[in-house]
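COURSE: Structural Biology Practicum
ASSIGNMENT: Worksheet 4, Part C
STUDENT ID: 0417
INSTRUCTIONS: Below are two proteins. For each, the amino acid sequence is given first, followed by its structure token string. Answer the questions at the end about the second protein only.

PROTEIN I
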Amino acid sequence: MSDQHESSSQAVCPEHHAALPEKPFISQGEIHFAAHHVGWIICGFFTLVSVGVSAWLINKHLLNYTNKGQQRFIVRCLFLVPIYSIISTLSYILYDSYASPLILVRDCYEAIVLHAFFYLLLEYISHDEEEQKEAFREIKLKKWMFPLGFIRKKPTGLYFLQIMKWGVLQYTVLRPACTLAALILNYIGWYCEASWSPIWGHIYLVTIISISVSVAMYCLLQLYMPISDLLKPHSPILKFLSVKAVVFLTFWQATFLAVLASFGVVKDTPYMTAEEINIGLGALLETFEMVIFAFLHLKAFTYLPYKPKPEDQPDFKPTSRLRSLGHVLDPRDMFRQIWKGCVYMWHRMRGYEPDTNERYVRYYTSYLSGSLD
């Protein structure tokens, strides 16, 4: 490790600089449009559209907040599009100063969305956690999906659920942690995003994130397969596409663009470096894709099932937006779920099966009901 640090301190990260200085946007009463100024305008337009569509749908859910268990996770997922759009645009405009902290915020929220979508699937099975456990007791895993079909051991019941849960939760920890590590390594000069050499930290962090996001997506799909019949009334395929594609596509897209830049496919111009062009292309693609996902969410996460019919509740009044939003943004449920999973796995490693041992059945019943909160 010390040899690697010594070699990275001696090596020089390749840097690119524009050959000509850029003219100010407004100079002597004239407006000078550069290529990236046009990119800013296009990104800004796409962002306005995607944020507007998402804000409308989020507002509808908050006004018809009649199923807190499901809509808490739905609204968290819906916030992904405006956060991605706004941060992609700002990181393009503010590339020299605030891009890295903004991307850290985006990566942290991406992890929250995967957590929210996982628990939304469980809420679709039942709002009652005891009924969720009963449903998973009946699950008999026939085979692992490709490429793990060769594994013979097939966990069932709560153990299967906990394995899938940790497969998703590991990403919620590793993704922001790796982004923070990238910021630290970049600050001390050991990151070098422009290089894929093993003497720099970039290649190792990208490898970790690649494995982590692949495991998380695999576990989401593996969880879906045995409970797909229970989820059919909720159109899960469209929801999977609208969440999985955002997380999976944007990461691999950014990685692909970075590879193109590092191998010289994207070249410097007189006024822009290859890295700046790469960031601009990424921002344009992401903001355009967020427009598509914003409209896709209108169908995938419609508010109509939660809007009371006049004949059923003639005196229904819209719920308070602020109160509903406060419930959505309250993070305590995430910490509780992580704690429950830790407790379960701890007892499992000690040789107890909380699903069958009477002592731990009583413990989990009281814990899940909230008496131990």
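PROTEIN II
(use this one for the questions)
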Amino acid sequence: MTRKILTTAAAAVALGTVPVVAAPAGAAAVADAPTVICDNYGLQAGLATKVCATVSGDSIEFSGHIGLAGPPSPGSPLPRPTEVEAVLTGSVAGGITLGTTRQTLTFQSRSVLVEGVRGTVPCGSTVRASFAVSSAGWPARPVTTEVPVTC
């Protein structure tokens, strides 16, 4: 139990998973600034992952992030390069698909960003994103987010 809590805490620190909002509520000067929401993370294929949504007016862009699940021990060698498959999917509640990006990547120790799913949606819509990472012997356990587009 303690190990799981420490691993989860380390993953949260490694990914910086505190929700991020680029435009403070009620700030007229930054009303047009995009809002970035990164509110969900998870461990997949032995790596820390999170999915983010950037909303600007009626435009939405999703991104997936892959990082180490925790800091390496001092003096330890870098992790072996690992081939992973990353799948980022976006949709509008109600079934409209915004797209899917599928990439095969080699991960070693540097954070990796997966982008490519974006679209324009009606104001008042709710959009959803899913980010799945798998590797040999490690099935995907997708992280998801759901964001209202308030314009």
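ANSWER KEY EXCERPT:
Q1: Confidence is low (pLDDT under 50) at residues 1-29.
Q2: Helices lie at 2-15.
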